[in-house]
Amino acid sequence: MGYLLGVVLFALAILISVSLHEAGHMLTAKGFGMKVTRYFVGFGPTLWSFKRGETEYGVKGIPLGGFCKIVGMTPQDDDVDPGDEPRAMWRYPVWKRTIVMSAGSITHFALALVTLWILAVSAGLPNPKFPSTEEGYKAEPAVIALAPCVVVENVSRGCQAGDPASPAARAQLKDGDRITAVNGRPVSTWGDMLDVVRATKPGTATVEYVRDGRTATATVDLAAVQRPPLTDPKGATSAVSALGVALRPSTPTLVQYGPVDAFGATADFTGNMAVQTAHALQRIPQKVPALWTAITGGERDADTPISVVGASRLGGEAVENSAWLVFFMLFVSLNFFIGVFNLLPLLPLDGGHIAIAWFERARSWVYARIGRPDPGRVDYLKLMPITYAVILIGGAFTLLTVTADVVNPITLFSR
């Protein structure tokens, strides 16, 4: 029930975000005097609508987004009444059109930033000093957090019936103990401990540790598990030993901020997110084969793109496991990604319209400087083949990600 509730809540959050995106276009257009004739949530048949002033507002039957109709977005629009010609969008200065077309993405960024600020003040944001790389984790002191079990096979999942109990827990080790030696071999970092434990044969072993400043020794029955080499996580697995513990980092995973400091923390986090989003966009072509592999029965790469379906499923998992911070961080990441994606200079995206508007402006400026007549507006009809190609590629990619998210979804928690 919790999972279904989470899916519905996340899907509703996405729908609200997209509706506010269109509201951003509508409100800025109206503010500049452009004529907006329709604003609807959803697509397909109209379920309910009303008209106020010159704009019809309503809800349609398929809740997969929304739209607003601004009169005369391009010079080639043929549905502009003669009386509305002065208010056609394409006749307005380029800076006004830029604000209107970017208002949707700005709305997504605003939703992400406000949510981040609220999280920074209430729950906390990820600690920038927390180890973010494998090398960083291995350099941490070997302070342990007990795992409830040992997963023998090399899979990422929670404990299930039949899994052996944690050897460390059976030996009465506790959360916060710092391992200092295994079978007499000293260890100082988490990486040292992993190396030594895996190099020790399964079975009885002596573990030295420090608890509350006192050194003690425990006899542990190390479990036999299948794991790849530490230097090659995707390499072939082999039988190694496991202690049944996880790293307890020396730094907190989250940092909570005051109302003022939260602004700086939000800005820093957003900057990192911008870099990660840029890298994610660059990797999309490389991840297409991995998506196909996931659809055709292979293992799903956790670094592959997800669709709205996949994001909603992850939201469902988060709610099911009471991980509300994960739920809201997913909401933040998705809004930021949509905001950036919509600004890409490709038709029919908002960024494509903005790019054309500024191209026209720059071309007119150059022609004026060289004494040639203004070439006028770009003919959108000549760009339709490129637009159709973008729509086709985008549609195919969306279908690919949705299919992967249905048949082989990414999961964050064991269900």
Automatic annotation (TrEMBL):
Keyword Ion transport attributed: no
Membrane topology: Multi-pass membrane protein
Claim: Ubl conjugation is one of the keywords in the record: no
Superkingdom of the source species: Bacteria
Subcellular compartments: Membrane
GO molecular function term, any single one: metallopeptidase activity
SUPFAM superfamilies: PDZ domain-like
Domain PDZ: 115-213
Cofactor(s), by name: Zn(2+)
Pfam family, one: Peptidase_M50
Transmembrane residue ranges: 99-120, 323-344, 386-407
Keywords: Hydrolase, Membrane, Metalloprotease, Protease, Transmembrane, Transmembrane helix, Zinc
Family listed: Belongs to the peptidase M50B family.
PANTHER family documented for this protein: MEMBRANE METALLOPROTEASE ARASP2, CHLOROPLASTIC-RELATED (PTHR42837:SF2), REGULATOR OF SIGMA-E PROTEASE RSEP (PTHR42837)
Protein name: RIP metalloprotease
